From TrEMBL:
Pfam families, per the entry: Pkinase
Coiled coil listed as a keyword: no
Protein name per its UniProtKB record: non-specific serine/threonine protein kinase
Record organism: Nonomuraea mangrovi
TM region positions: 300-321, 341-369, 376-398, 418-437
Amino acid sequence: MTSRLAGDVVGGRYRLAAELGSGGFGRVWRARDLTLDVDVAIKELQLPPGMPETGRAERLARATREARNAARLRKHDGIIAIHDVVIDDGLPWIVMELVDGCSLDEHVKQHGPLPVGRAIAVAVALLTAIGAAHREGVVHRDIKPANVMLDENGKVLLTDFGTAIHSTDTALTATGMFIGSAEYTAPERLRGSDGLPAGDLFSLGVTLYQAVEGVSPFRRDTQEATLAAVLLEEAPAPRRTGPLTQLITRLLDKDPGRRPTVDEALAMAGDIAGEQPATTVRVRRDTKILPIQSKKWPPVGVAAPMVFMSAIAVLTALGVAGLPDPGGTWEQFEKYGNYDAVLGVAVMIAAVADVVLVGLVCASFARFLPANVGKIVTAVVGVAGLVFGCGATAFAFHGAGEILGNAMELSGRESAEAPLALISIVVLVAVGSAWSSQRPDRRETIRGRTRS
């Protein structure tokens, strides 16, 4: 067996152009079909030198099985199409559809987690592909972000059926040998119940969790710890999944009997999609993923956070103007008690409430940190947000008083009343916008608790 290089011709027909990726069992190349004059992807099976004959035979059988199972599904749009299998230098090469794009795993690493709208579209596409495979008697057994492709036209494609089994297949692995990716593998598979369709649904749940959260829920530092996490631990509570939370939570149920079927999961995803603005994932040839911009901004998804950030920016700017200390404006608040005790108390309560409300809202945004940063970092960020919000608002009263007093030639009392009214309005806008932007997450959490 010789090492292949770009420019080599495989099977007398396919000229290798460039390596697209590699894994434990081989490499995938971009190649040119010299007969049809089109580009294809071609998977090269690699056998390590000195591999025992039993291991060699097993890998050859797995490659043959991958081609056979994928060929059964070639008519389905959501599954990578197999075009040909050729034998070269005694090894099978699988010729398949070329996808100009990137894997879901690559996209998350390069561009960050998917927005919920895109993740819903990915979920529907993958559930459709998984359902098609199961109807043909094929269980994939290795669904993960690296095996989900996003092409330049927005299609979502399931690939790599190297570990898939058909209902008529016999076991290929030796006793004690595990094939697959542990962190995406269903608990029942780790316990020995192999080939169950429900296992693909668990793997899909892990894939969707990682797509939206940006981290794999069961990945640990060692293989043993990862296996233990899949078997014994629950996934960390998701922070970004929004309306997808209930579906992902059910897919990640340790008991396969309690997971939804493909049809039930599709119905759940369809209901969610019906509530979301339509989005399409586009992938350019440089693999950058772009959404089609909506002509109308969703009021909660975009407008509320923007209004909140604008309000915080105003408070921060006024706070800077009020440095180095709150100064005379707060002294004027205290003097209100000299005129009217009840009015003085009301003014101080309003001013202090403004300070505390902004501090709490800024602190609450620590909940949007990635789940893997840890409780200590989250607590520190929360405290920092509280201090910043309270401080900025406290200083903002004096800054607004100075600006308005100088601009409008106000008296001492008027220069306290005006900033109190202005800051109170800004605070109410900020708190209302923050509440609106988080309202869908709370509603989904309540709905999930009611159903569970």
